Amino acid sequence: MAFPVNRQSDIKPIIDRLRKEHHVARHHCYAWMLGIDRKEWRVIDDGEPSGTAGKPMIGQINSAELTNILIVVIRYFGGTLLGVSGLAHAYRSATADAINNAQLVSRTLQDYYEITFPYISMNDVMKVLKEENTGQKDQHFDTECKIKVNIRVSLAEKILGRLSRIEGLKFEYLETI
């Protein structure tokens, strides 16, 4: 089974739910990869011999050049011993099957920022955000205003440059998804 994930905290609830749903299964092996640079990853063999589940699974994720993905293979013991190479092949095949049957989504990378500015600068800020078609959420307007915005990574430098010319505006980088 393949699941889209954006951060590590998304993974545990999925694993916990699957363990409850498939509580009789012997093994809930999984591999995940996160981030633009694909450097954040982990494999769990869950009681299988070391390297027979997680390594072949992460290998398939790498071969498909995927990121922000969790793949879980749930194995019930059926009485047949597969051996080390048989297990590795089974986990590799199950992962390839999960990837081939998943609805893969290409997304534009977004940088998320919190911008803070004085109320008097509201018109200038909103003009830039509208012209640049940024996403906005969690708006708080008072004498000091805060808005969380998402900006396409490729446009971030340009938009932040425009915003930084507004007097009293500060921005804080939150994350890239």
Write the layout of secondary structure elements.
Elements: E1 2-4, H1 11-21, E2 27-34, E3 40-44, H2 54-63, E4 69-75, H3 83-101, E5 110-118, H4 122-131, E6 135-140, E7 144-152, H5 156-164, E8 170-176
Q: In words, what does this structure look like?
A:
The protein has 177 residues and is α+β, with helices and mostly antiparallel strands. The protein has two domains: 2-101, Impact, N-terminal domain (Ribosomal Protein S5, domain 2), CATH 3.30.230.30; 110-176, Alpha-Beta Plaits (2-Layer Sandwich). 33% of the residues lie in helices and 31% in strands. It is built from five helices and eight strands. The longest helix is centred in the middle third of the chain and has 19 residues, at 83-101. It is elongated, with a radius of gyration of 22 Å.
For the termini, the CA-CA separation is 22 Å
Q: How would you classify the helix and strand content by structural class?
A: alpha+beta
Average pLDDT figure: 94
CATH superfamily of the largest domain: Impact, N-terminal domain
How many individual domains? 2
Task: List the total number of helices.
Answer: 5
